[in-house]
Amino acid sequence: MTQELAAKSIGELSLLLRNKHLSPVELTDAVLANVEAYNGEINAYISVEAEKARTMATVAEQEIQSGNYRGALHGIPMALKDILYFKDEKATMGSKIHEDFIAGFDATVVAKLKAAGTVFTGKLNMHEYAWGATTTNPHYGACRNPWDLKKIPGGSSGGSGAAVAANMTIASLGTDTGGSIRIPAASCGIIGLKPTHGRISKFGCFPLSWSLDHIGPMTKTVFDAALLLEMLAGYDPKDPTSLNRPTKNYSHELTEDVKGLVIGIEESYFFHNVDHRVNEAVRHALQQLEKLGARIEPVRIPSLAQAEFAELVTITTEASAIHHDNLVKQPEKFGDDVRFLLEIGELMSGVDYVQAQQIRRKLDLDFAAAFEEVDVLVTPTLPFLAPEIGSSTVDINGQSLSFLDEVIRFTGPGNLTGLPALSIPCGVHDGLPVGLQIIGPAFQEEKVLNLAFALEKLDLMQGKKPNLSHLTVN
């Protein structure tokens, strides 16, 4: 029963909790039992807060029993990426430099989750300062993929991806600067949504790149992602990048109907040099959508040819500006990979940065033109299957290519443009999940979510999930 409870979604559990058929304490104990059983091997948590969680669950139980039910997240156990601030608690950012940092206030998303009655079970592992895509953390240990412990879970929100996939949290939040929600979602076989830039407040989240950072949900189901989006979205004057745009009840508007939906395919960029297993899974998903009445149309986005340059320059320059003082004063405290990337950022020129922003403007215009012709775009999330921990290369159809060059090739454009993008699992090959990415027009997350909902109903994963039976109790 413990395993079954922890494997359920927010949508399933909230009904049981609201109707008093399930105790938040029982549910929290089920999640913590999985943490105890699996975290020694997977290492998804930086810190586990079991007693705090049980105290919060007891309070939630008393409130629900007395008729004070706050909503769908009341009594739901969640662990968050350790880059989001909790007042008077440590936020390590996966680093040594900030290992004892105590936040003086709650992040806006944390405050909203607290108000909703969420039960917090701990802080999740991440790539140091969110500056990387492996979550092979030199200070807190490598996080491992629940599908195959030799493989990376993706990053930088690898702990979130692994914890959701292994039922060590019911849902989580990640941050995404070049793909850090969608990459681990694809690698771990879960849902990862990067909303439109400015849709969810970033106040109280340690920055990596001011103009590229996003916060978004990482969940077991599309419904859960929609639910978290509607609860967290909204204007926040504390965040200078927050935008005051109307939000929707996204979870109430989900539909399986894709008849007449026009799906754009940009072959020359998003389907170039893709592992044949990934290509096969994504193409199969598109064929199934066509059978449901969707129409596939080719599109051209010429400026994508320059997207990798623009992403690299923008993220490295802005990250190096944020970390400049520490890089000068205590470089030895950074992990080797992060220090290397920060040093690259120091070499970028003002000309490079301005040119990168000009490319971003061209991308905005080209994507806007594409969305005049199609409703959404579909791409692979990653051009490869998750590689082994410690590997600096990936194999794509027999070619050994740089992991760093390939990992954000398909996700980076969503950060440069700020457009909403979601990764959903669409199949399993050689024991590893494949992610399909849906990109939509700005502030039209409902289009992305609705297509994902239709895909989810097709059950392209055929019920496959990580096999955790071999893991030992910690």
TrEMBL record:
Domain Amidase, residue spans: 26-449
Q: Name one Pfam family in it.
A: Amidase
The protein's matches in Gene3D superfamilies, at most eight in alphabetical order, are given as: Amidase signature (AS) domain
List, alphabetically, the InterPro entries matched.
Amidase (IPR000120), Amidase_CS (IPR020556), Amidase_dom (IPR023631), AS_sf (IPR036928)
What family does the Swiss-Prot or TrEMBL record give for this protein? Answer: Belongs to the amidase family.
Identify the PANTHER family for this entry. GLUTAMYL-TRNA(GLN) AMIDOTRANSFERASE SUBUNIT A, MITOCHONDRIAL, TRANSAMIDASE
Identify this protein by name. Answer: Amidase
